[in-house]
Each structure stands twice: as structure tokens, then as C-alpha cells.
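Regression check, 3-methyl-2-oxobutanoic acid case 262:
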Amino acid sequence: MTIPEFQRHKRDKKKLIVVTAYDALFTRIVEQAGIEAILVGDSLGVVVQGKADTLSVTMEDMLYHTKLVAGAGQRALVIGDMPFMSYQASSEDALRNAGRFLQAGAQAIKVEGGAAVVDRVAAMTGIGIPVMGHLGMTPQSVHRYGGYKVQGKELDHAAALLKDAKDLEAAGAFAIVLEAIPTELAKRVTEQLTIPTIGIGAGPHCDGQVLVLYDLLGLFDDFVPKFVKPYAHLKTDALQALRRYKEEVESGAFPSDSESYH
Ligand code: KIV
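Current build output:
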């Protein structure tokens, strides 16, 4: 999947399917399922590293996981998520760090925020780095929101978000993630942009959807937002398997003759 193909989906009214992945094993499974785009999300701070939020994720963490995903991926578009403070301070930081993502194998990067990052987005797209925007409940601003709360419910906030989306498009962003905003607002943004919107907790009218892989597989259940639909219950399966393994080793049922050499 290339950036022009990704964008063509909107014109062709074909839904874009995006999931996160952080390693080679799941990248191969995601691609076998026919999924076209992988976000190496800084959500790895929570679901892989066990932190309460994404703020402590570093460039080194992100580059390590981006290399694993890009190294295993054959077809899917790989988007690297720029971690907190890798682009906020200056356009120079943004350019240098975005370049490191592309050198690690990503084809595009994602940044959170609207007005505050528009000049960074313009700088990156200006030198040919594809940028995905991210508006609404942007997790790197969790302390400003006082928690993971739906954004854009008041009319003035909704209008500001729509303006941010248009400004990101004008700055050259190739797509925008809309997270945890009212369905009606996501519909309006999607209708008014020519670039695709990718929703997570933004209702059915977006041009595509993204979910955190461990949420959709039912592996991570410490905190399950309303917008998550677990399509499997792999944590339950893993617990059952591990408990059976423990019981069988204790009882002597494993290893049996068929798992032994002679
Ligand atoms: O970090 C991440 O996984 C994300 C998605 C939830 C959009 O930003």
C-alpha cells in the first residue's frame, strides 16, 4: 500500500482498515488478514511497556518497534507514531526525528495536534515526508484533558477541530486520525476534507477505522474504552492454555511420549 493508493480509497469510497502492530509476529498475522495499513503506535507505551500513558515513550523505543514491523511487513503501509517531545519543541526536531522513522523503514509518520503543529507538518511534507494528523482525544495531551475524555462536544470546540483538520490538510497531511469525538462531528470533518479520516471512537462515517491490535484481540483489558470491540478473547485463551500447561507439568501428563525423543 502506497500513500497515493491509501488516499485513492476515499475517492473510490472503499473503507480504509488500519491496526497497530509493534512486532514482526503480529505484523505477519495482520498482513495475512489482508489489512492494508499498520500504525506503529506510541500506544505501545501502555500495551507493551505497561505504563499508565504514552508520555514516557522515547524515539529509541519507537524506532526499535518500527524496524521490527517494517522488517516483517511486505505489503502494508507502515506509519510510525512520533512520540511525545519528538516534534513539539521545533520544526527542526520534527524534521530530524521524522527522517529517523523513514530510515527505520516507515513510509509515513503521525503527529498529534492541530494549530500547534501545523507548521511542523508543513515543514515535513515540504521535504517529502508523508504526515498523518491526529485530532480529538490526543493521548499525548491527556493531562490537559484531565483524563481520556471525549473531545469536541461543545460547538466552539467542534468548530476549532474542523478548522484544525482543514489546516492540517492545507499543510499537506495525507490523512487524519479522529479519536473519541462525536459521530456527527466526525461526519462533518470527513465530508469537508479531501484527505481520508481514520476514526477511533469517531463513529461509522469516517473513511476508515483504526484500533489498537491488543484491544481488538481481547489481549489488553486493563482499560477498555467504549469504542473498543474485542473481536477475540485471546487473554482468556492464553490464561486457559497457561493454566493447563502448569497443571500438566505438575501432574506429569506433559511431556508425554509423543513430545519426547528416544
Ligand atoms: O498510538 C496509537 O496506537 C494511536 C492510535 C490509537 C490511533 O495513536
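Comparison notes: The pocket of 3-methyl-2-oxobutanoic acid is lined by residues 20, 39, 41-43, 81, 177, 179, 200, 210, 212 (CB under 6 Å). The first strand starts at residue 16 and ends at 20. No diff flagged against the previous build.
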